[in-house]
Amino acid sequence: MNRLSGKVAVITGGNSGMGLATAKLFATEGAKVAVTGRNESTLATAATAIGHDAIAIKADVLDLKSIDAAYQQAFDKFGKFDVLIVNAGVFKGLPLADFTEELFDEIVDINYKGAFFSVQKALPFLNDGASVVITSSVVNVTGMATASAYASTKAAVRSLARGFSADLLDRKIRVNILSPGPIETPIFDRLGMPQENVNGMKEYMASGVPLKRLGTVDEMANGFLFLASDESSYMVGGEIVLDGGMGQL
Ligand SMILES: NC(=O)c1ccc[n+]([C@@H]2O[C@H](COP(=O)([O-])OP(=O)(O)OC[C@H]3O[C@@H](n4cnc5c(N)ncnc54)[C@H](OP(=O)(O)O)[C@@H]3O)[C@@H](O)[C@H]2O)c1
Fold it and tell me: Which among 162, 183, 186, 202 has the fewest CB atoms less than 10 Å away?
């Protein structure tokens, strides 16, 4: 299949986890792919792993100028974008009583402000009719202990997809949301906990999913592909929830 044949796709947070799996799938579906992220080492290996002349660009969404520079670099290489996946994000939490302003600002600045400006700054580089997808989470509609700051950023980006779609109707740019449940990615290894605790946390999360397992990055990549391609051409400001039933049953 070549569902993205000739299209240019930019994926933020494309050097790890579900962003990387999505970049690989998009490249095999015919897209010219640019990924962004912070870690130079995984950016280098990601470009090779994605293949098909993909490029990997260092950009931290906390530094808005680096987003501009990354988009310019992707444009110089491939031309205007048909697909933008706004996927960069962090998962961090603390009991409410212990929450700090510093941690709150970090989560909000990356997951919410970072997503807002990752779309806004792409506007000059997007083709009319482009598809933009923002990664939210099933927790945009559920409560999760220790994670209210995280969850509220994911509810905020759910709202952005509606507002941005309304803003961009005249250009026929569709903005939609993909909301994963708990997915097996490096996001949990970044919590700074011993591996044993990370494994325990994943088991606990899996036990709360009706399907009794974490989702896979490939399951997420298939969802991103649908939203990125013309197969979702009648979907605007909407959401696909890929959560093993967690938010429903
Ligand atoms: N895994 C889950 O269970 C789950 C569930 C629901 C939603 N999500 C969401 O899915 C998205 C992808 O996460 P993942 O699970 O695939 O985890 P991951 O493997 O940790 O990937 C996170 C990605 O975001 C990038 N990133 C983080 N902070 C950044 C910043 N300040 N500037 C630029 N890039 C930044 C990382 O780049 P570096 O590695 O270079 O820092 C990495 O590429 C996130 O938005 C996350 O909130 C995940």
Answer: 186
Is the Cβ–Cβ distance between 221 and 22 less than 8 Å?
yes
Q: Residue 41: its pLDDT value, please?
A: 98
Ligand 1 contact, 215 CB (< 6 A): no
Domain boundaries, the chain: 8-188+217-242
Nearest-CA residue for atom 16 of ligand 1: 17
CATH superfamily of the domain spanning 8-188+217-242: NAD(P)-binding Rossmann-like Domain (3.40.50.720)
The predicted structure's pLDDT at residue 1: 72
- The residue nearest atom 45 of ligand 1, judged by CA position, is 89
Q: Whole-prediction pTM value? A: 0.99
Task: Give 184 Cα–ligand 1 centroid separation in angstroms.
Answer: 12
Tokens describing residue 115: 């997503």
State how far the Cα of 164 lies from the Cα of 61, in Å rounded to an integer. 18
The pLDDT tens digits for 152-193 are 999 999 999 999 999 999 999 999 999 999 999 999 999 999
Catalytic residue among 71, 112, 150, 234: 150
